[in-house]
Amino acid sequence: MKMANQNQGDLREQVERLQEQNRLLEARVAEHEKLQQSCSSNLESMRTTLDALQDLLARCRADMVLQQQNLPTTAIGPEQQPRSKLQRANSTPAAMKSEIELLRAQLEVYKNDFAGERIARQVLQLEKNQLAGELQQLQQQNRTLIVEALNGSQADQQDVRSFSRRSSRMSQISDAIGEDDQHADQLQEGSHCRHCDRTFGDIQSLETHIDECPAY
């Protein structure tokens, strides 16, 4: 019984350790879920910004094409057009081209950031799945240890009941032995003639003697 109590105590300690590990893993899973939500929000924001930049780039290209179409195909003298308008017309394609290059650079940066965020999100998802698997395994071990602890407690109760039954049986046997000894003493006492103090080996001899005993 002492060994069973010690085993039950060890099982309780293992259950407590597994429960603590479960709490730690659940905290890590919750933290990864928060990080995953943050990454999802960042990805959504970057996707919106990327779409806006692509739209802006498309509009800039369309404006540049429109500006090129509106340029005069024949030479216009200074006397026919103010010089400021001519300079502005000549400088518009270059400015538009520069703006488009800038937008392309920004678009490339956002694409790289978007790819990085997506990779980080995938890594977090893998870590979350791994932690969830470890948590499930520990929970299964926890349930197994609890069942073993309950079975151990039932086994202890069965041992107690078995011990009680054995003790009761031993008591009955002891009582039976005492009764047999008492009966043997009675038989031995019954084989003794109380009148002439003679002893006989069996009851039948005693009965025969009683019929012939001169002391009667």
Automatic annotation (TrEMBL):
<dbReference type="GO" id="GO:0005634">
    <property type="term" value="C:nucleus"/>
</dbReference>
<dbReference type="GO" id="GO:0005737">
    <property type="term" value="C:cytoplasm"/>
</dbReference>
<dbReference type="GO" id="GO:0070530">
    <property type="term" value="F:K63-linked polyubiquitin modification-dependent protein binding"/>
</dbReference>
<protein>
    <submittedName>
        <fullName>(northern house mosquito) hypothetical protein</fullName>
    </submittedName>
</protein>
<dbReference type="InterPro" id="IPR051301">
    <property type="entry name" value="Optineurin/NFkB_EssMod"/>
</dbReference>
<feature type="coiled-coil region">
    <location>
        <begin position="1"/>
        <end position="63"/>
    </location>
</feature>
<keyword id="KW-0175">Coiled coil</keyword>
<feature type="coiled-coil region">
    <location>
        <begin position="121"/>
        <end position="148"/>
    </location>
</feature>
<dbReference type="GO" id="GO:0043122">
    <property type="term" value="P:regulation of canonical NF-kappaB signal transduction"/>
</dbReference>
